[in-house]
Amino acid sequence: MNTTCRATVSSLATACLALTLAAPVSTQPGATKPPGAQTAAVHSPAAQPAKSARWLQKLKSWLQAVGEHAPGEADGPAKQVGRMTEAELEAVRADLSALVSIHQERRAVVVRYKDEPFTLSGIETLLGLTGEAAARSDANRILKRAAILHGDVAMLVVPYGSDPAGCSTQLARIVRDGNLVGSVCMGIHWAQGRALLDATLPDPRKDQMVELWYEATIAFLIERSDYANAVRQIDHAAALFPDAPGLLFEHGCYHESLASRGIQTAVQASGTGDRSASAYLKEAEGLFRRAARSKPDFVEARVHHGAVLGALRRHGEAADELRQAIAAAPEAVLRYYAELFLGDEEQALGRKDSAGAHYREASTLFPLAQSPWIALSALARRGGDRVESLSAIRRALDLPPSQRGRWEDPWWAYHTWFSRDAVTLFRDLYRPFVAGVRQ
Questions:
Q1: Each residue's pLDDT tens digit, 15-30
Q2: Is 330 helix (H, G, I), strand (E, B) or coil?
Q3: Integer Cα distance of 68 and 150 in angstroms
Q4: Among 77, 171, 273, 434, who pairs with 65 as Cys (CB 3.0-4.6 Å)?
Q5: Are 377 and 300 contacting, i.e. CB atoms less than 8 angstroms apart?
Q6: CA angle 341, 343, 346 (to 5 degrees)
């Protein structure tokens, strides 16, 4: 279990620019990028005035990076933005907001901002706005492409670079197998993405792209056990979209993970935690319950809800929830989890034969998985059947080493596996931008 904190910045592209599709993007070693993402080249906008102040040069450079960045790529524009400091990024975002506001208000033919004269047409040229009627849509598109760029910097650039520019002064602890093994800095780019999307009009809370950006980025962070950065994304997403099933589910997974033994062992050893495992479980239970109620066919939420109910010793409720999940489970991994958890609940309810049947069913779904045989061995041992207990544990231990890898048993990935994973979510997020669809 590796808990890390990293982040980066995304850049933006203008709506009036022509997007040219090219070859599929290649994935950087170790980085996750949705398959199907394509390279998009965008002609950068001309700027005004001719001789620019330093702040305006920074803004132009950032706008060019936003326009030229191909979503899903650790490309030159992303690396360029990754080298910017937090102060530079904050200043660029403030200048962008001011110029957009000036344009929207259309206060005068010529406006001075930071001692630079701007005409309304000059602002349109600089930002790629296409006139009063389309300005809001164009500004939103800049903000969205910028958030995508900053997210890509956080995911694909900063983790593989040695430049400390992407770091804030805060530190987060790294945990492996329940042990604190070091610390890393908190990144700055996720915060930039959040702030950019907060500025979308008329209301980011009603924008599907904004919701998808949060769902995709949170999935990425949880898949990598990066809970330090995930919590900020989750808290902000919860404020914007309090009833979105996908975000409720991810929020629940975050709390369920923090209640796990690996995390709790490290927290207790360091004396840094102020919440118990049961407090996290209760929080997760409520979130999973809300997700399942708002989307009755959300099988994955039911599986996790059943697991958390069981951990809270509400075994009858847990068994009922898991039976519903098994009846509707569309894929083997979810069915496997549900069978294992239902075996635990049947055992807790005193129905040992039924528990054994569910563990065996899990084993048929993943024949090389060790977890069902370990569970069967423990079940037999509790029942006083030492012969059966030894037989079951031998089934787990006798697997050839080459077939005993952690990826043969989905249980290893329970806290970081999603049926709709980050790759799929990012593919959906990037598609309108690489295809040049206006948003």
A1: 222 222 222 323 333 3
A2: coil
A3: 13
A4: 77
A5: no
A6: 110
How far is it, in rounded angstroms, from Cα 169 to Cα 171?
7
pLDDT tens digits for range 257-298: 999 988 887 777 666 667 889 999 999 999 999 999 999 999
Q: Is the peptide bond before 117 cis (omega within 30 degrees of 0)?
A: no
CA distance 386 to 392: 10
Q: pTM for the complete prediction?
A: 0.83
CA 376 – CA 370 distance, rounded (Å): 10
- Rg, Å, the chain Cα set: 25
Written as six digits, the tokens of 61 are: 């450079």
Q: What is the pLDDT of residues 300-344, one digit of tens each?
A: 999 999 999 999 999 999 999 999 999 998 889 999 999 999 999
Among the listed residues 371, 422, 415, the one whose alpha carbon sits nearest the alpha carbon of residue 256: 415
Token reading at 128: 């790629």
Adjacent-strand bridge partners of 171:
185
What torsion, rounded to 10 degrees, do the Cα atoms 30, 33, 34, 38 define?
-130
Residues 17, 436 contacting (CB under 8 angstroms)? no
Do β-strands 38-42 and 179-187 pair in parallel, antiparallel, or remain unpaired?
Answer: unpaired
Cα gap 177→405, rounded to integer Å: 17
